[in-house]
């Protein structure tokens, strides 16, 4: 089974990040909606498969079974097509470090994708979860409330660190998908990292766009709880994808490791200590 080297994956990620910023607003919105819906369908499948499994008998095996079906969402995103915020946190940073895009491109893309992913997730949560009652009857409601409650009950620091772990694994799944040259290889590359993040219980900002609103539509929790969770998990996912995958691999496998490290350090320092839109800040390519 042929695959791409890490050096080639860096090139693919950078090129993909550049391509994503060149999409029209309409295409970005549509693909973002689809990605949010696909991840939510994967989570809905998780709820429907695991809700009726007896926890006292099955224990963690039920979680492993649910984690085994959850990757369906990212498989749809990568192979059928979609724009997922967490994956873009890695690809766009790689493209930025390669000087193919500007920071303003990143801000624009992430903003549009966040909104469209949220709309797609809400669509599945409301129409499939609430209107059809797929997350609001019997054991499915109990499972939905249990999972959502475990997300929002975590403190800001814990949700933040959990978010790092989630997108580290999610972006590794995307990275491995870029390594493969056929559908079977991409599916295998996606499957195990996503299964791992779900089985461990890490928090993913787009997945939470489905499960927490689904519980809210059922009459539990509130939007303030969700926003608090969103902020912590978003920031954690950003570090997990942009730093631990995009930046680390760019420094390791860029054309010149020393120049790559200097470029990465300058980019980070500019973004933290200068206005992104200043003439000599990180807004320039």
UniProtKB/TrEMBL annotation:
Signal peptide: none annotated. Keywords: Membrane, Transmembrane, Transmembrane helix. Pfam families: Form_Nir_trans (PF01226). This is Formate/nitrite transporter family protein. Belongs to the FNT transporter (TC 1.A.16) family. It is found in: Membrane. PANTHER family: FORMATE TRANSPORTER-RELATED, FORMATE_NITRATE FAMILY TRANSPORTER (EUROFUNG). The chain crosses the membrane at residues 28-49, 61-85, 106-128, 159-178, 190-220, 226-251. It is a multi-pass membrane protein. Its main location: membrane.
